Amino acid sequence: MNSVSTQSRLNYFGKFIEIIRSSYKAKTKDKPFEEILGNILMDRREKDLLAEQIYSILFSTKFVSLLTEAEIGSNKGFFSDASTRLSYKFLPPVDDPVELRTQFDNFFDDKKDYHWVQAIPDENWYHFFADIFREISPALAKYIERELLNSILVLAQRAANLGIEPEVVSKIPRIDDLDSPFLGLNREVMLYVEKTLNQYNYNEEGRDSDYKHILVMISQCKTQVSYIYKHKDVFGISLQLTYMMRQLEQYLKRLSQLLELLQTDDKQRQWMIVTDLFKEFVYAENTKYSLRKHFSINLQLLTFKVIENTSKTGEHYISSDRSGYWRLFRKALGGGIIVGLLCCNKTRLYFQHLPIFWEAFFYSLNYSIGFMIIHILGFIIATKQPAMTASTIAANLSNNGQNPNWLETTTQLLIRLVRSQFISLVGNASIAFPVAYGLDWIYFYFNGFHIADPAKAHKLIGELNAWESLAIPHAALAGVYLMISGLIAGYYENKWIYNKFSLRLINHPGLIRILGQKRLNRAANYFEHNFGALAGNFALGVFLGSTSAIGFTFGLPLDIRHITFASGNFGIAFAGLNSHISTDLWINSVIGITCIGIMNVLVSFGLSIAFALKSRNAKFSEVKSLLGNLSWQFFHHGSAFFFPVTVSVKENDELPEAFSSK
Fold first, then answer.
1. Nearest to 593 by CA among 386, 360, 451, 429
2. Which residues cross the membrane (predicted)?
3. Which of 245, 247, 253, 652 is the most interior residue, by most CB within 10 Å?
4. For the segment 143-180, what is each residue's pLDDT rounded down to a tens digit?
5. How many CA atoms lie within 13 A of 549 on its CB side?
6. In terms of C-beta density within 10 A (0-12 exposed, 13-18 middle, 19 or more buried), how is residue 190 classed?
7. CA dihedral defined by 542, 546, 551, 553, rounded to 10 degrees?
8. Which residues lie below 8 Å from residue 272, measured CB to CB, with a gap of 6+?
9. At what angle do helices 471-498 and 517-554 cross, to 10 degrees?
10. Percent of the chain with pLDDT over 90
11. Are 365 and 527 in contact (CB under 8 A)?
């Protein structure tokens, strides 16, 4: 065929797509979109002409790139692929015109084409394809079969290569030997393709038997992938492994689709597979340079793992009975005492008048060491609870299919969370004030002057004013940091497991000589359960200690407000003014501290639960029912949100064990 005829065919098919695209954009209520497709081609001659033009395009292009890469991606790796997508956004690559993928991009060049393609029901597409492509010439059928076989061979080889990657092999024992299902799949596919191409002594029965054997190998490969997913809590997960697992799943899925397309004699089933592939290809090509899609898909599993680790810790922050309630209060008192010390030390650092970098450094060190000491001693900081417990709530919502009483159990869980948060806030704030106040007077006794002079004391009080300062937005920023620190804790807990640091520690010959095997075993066990939390606390300290310096450097009004530190600072300021402040200042300060605490909790919990729900693919439709039930409980049993109440045996039985008090 000459270039002129080819161009006319492209133009005709492009105009056909433009008609559907325009109809979608102009659709009205009195003309449902699913009817548009059937109303475009009414004449049989037009249908035959369209089919002939599409056949000519298929016969003159290669399929492998489209069939093996669309919606799967390359083997470059997560960051390399992201970098490539970004560069292609600004400077698109030169596509080969003999590739079907290139022609596909030319036809569906509007980046929103996948909307109308997916909006048309599968049944409509199936009838359209079956009606248009009624007859295919033997030569074209043979050519399509050959391209499909080439694609099947490439997919099997790529799946085998990924299946024996060291990062995958290390998670599944003995997967790289001759019994590996990935290598077995590749061997079976090669045999199937060779026999099909040669057609030598390969009857229908033998081909069907080989096909079924390939399906068994695909099933075994999927089992290995599922094994990695199910045991991610044992050996952790990484960004690279997540990327590989997603690619493996896509290779196996596409391989199954193409094999069935070749093997089945059911015309209806063939066109349904073509419809599925067609929709996948349009979506893939329209979004192939989308960084948002790339990060969203590949980070979901990693995010799930990070959130899941905070969920395990979060269960310890929810009390279900009276003893647990007062145990949280005592732990909060311990945390408040440490914070009172930190407030005094930070104020003393302020009067050292250090350069801005060193001030931020020592502020961060002050916070980080204090937070880690609080964790080591088993105390708690109340505002860290929401970030750690949000995933526990999300886990209950995302598993409501297995829990018919999910609404009641989740409501009870939230009530217990609010109650636990309330008593923890009370414990932190109530003790931080007197501790800081008392330490200041002790300091005055030995040094003859207060930690904070009157100017600093007035400044500390002014920073608590909810009406005349930036206390509320600064508290919101602290809430963001609290949420991020929870994610960091989960990330490093996963990293410790994934890199097998515990095993590496207990087998380190130098450390064994220094500490002895028993001490080293205890240390490894402690870090396995606490390394993530320590890392999160350290990071939180850096965030809180450096924000003000960063704001000063860039001329931005950045700072943080945290309820427990606000209470401690108020104690220092009150002592610095010799316990003489007006009633208005008292009222404004108490209101400000309360508002800071509420904002800390709302932002931290809101962001954390949104992140957790996203990572678990939980539906937001349950939220309305949950809030309604929670509101009803508040108006009828409001005291349960603040004080422990007697819980019936039935209620305890309904609550999942994972959510009970530890």
1. 429
2. 363-382, 422-446, 471-492, 531-554, 585-613
3. 245
4. 999 999 999 999 999 999 888 888 787 777 665 566 78
5. 18
6. middle
7. -130
8. 122, 126
9. 150
10. 32
11. no
